[in-house]
Design brief:
This protein is mostly helical. Helix content is 76%, strand content 0%. The protein has seven helices and no strands.
């Protein structure tokens, strides 16, 4: 799990990016490259301040590994390109974490986001309130919602575990 002090460093920067990614993916079914670049910039600056140098450098390695894995997953149609790029940009934040916790958290966020999105799009007043959301009409799922949730809940975990 991320140290509480590091989580406090990241939360003010990651929260708006995560909301931007989730909203954009639900509305347009696209994660903007600018959001990906902002997330990478957050790691470049905040990661340098919040983590020891070896963990900071491992974060960059994790970013590269997740980017390659994401591009391969995109090439075979498992995820969208924006999902792959955002997952890579947010991956360094998880570099010092327990992989079991991270994968369990992602699974929970994925299931919760999927169920919530599918239920929300079945509610007529909500669909009328947001008629131009692309994700209401597509069979594929806005994975940015689950990725953003995973990032935020991971950063909140040190405070929720007490």
């Amino acid at each position: 799990m991320i140290a509480p002090t590091a989580a406090l460093w990241f939360l003010p920067f990651c929260l708006p990016v995560a909301v931007w990614v989730a909203w954009s993916d639900m509305k347009f079914m696209k994660i903007p490259n600018k959001a990906v670049m902002v997330m990478a910039a957050v790691w470049a600056v905040v990661g340098f301040l919040a983590f020891p140098m070896n963990a900071y450098l491992w974060g960059w390695a994790v970013l590269g590994i997740v980017l390659v894995a994401g591009f391969l997953a995109n090439a075979i149609g498992l995820v969208g390109a924006g999902d792959a790029k955002f997952a890579a940009a947010m991956a360094p934040v998880f570099a010092t974490g327990d992989p079991r916790l991270i994968f369990a958290l992602f699974a929970a966020c994925l299931l919760g986001a999927f169920a919530t999105h599918r239920l929300a799009r079945a509610v007529p007043p909500l669909r009328r309130a947001l008629p131009d959301w692309e994700s209401w009409n597509r069979k594929d799922f806005p994975m940015g919602l689950a990725l953003a949730g995973t990032l935020i809940f991971y950063l909140l975990a040190p405070f929720l575990a007490k």
